[in-house]
Amino acid sequence: RGLSSVISRPGRRPPLTRSALMLALVGIALSCVPPDCDRPDFGTCGNACCSLLVHFPNTSSVALMQALNSTLAQGGPDLRFHLMPASGEPYVGFADMRPYHGESMGHHHVSFMGQAWHATQK
């Protein structure tokens, strides 16, 4: 299963504990156990079929990206997340999209884009 994440650049910063809580909730929600995990999707959409757009009004996009990279690099809340190469980059983690602010996703400018795979128990 794949999870693509897009971090938009907010105006204010929430405490990083809020970011950690959100990541833990996402991890719990995605920790699929049988019988619902017998239909794996290895990217039929060309990549992950879902994307996540989350606003953290009081957190900079840089601080949030660093927290996500650090947490996911260690396996995430359930130790089953794996960072994947982002946007054709040779390294895993989030790619810096700020130089491309001329292009946008809808009405949101994209600051960082990354992908993590979550391995289920099955």
From TrEMBL:
Signal sequence annotation: 1-31
Stated name of the protein: Uncharacterized protein
Species: Phaeocystis antarctica
Keywords: Signal
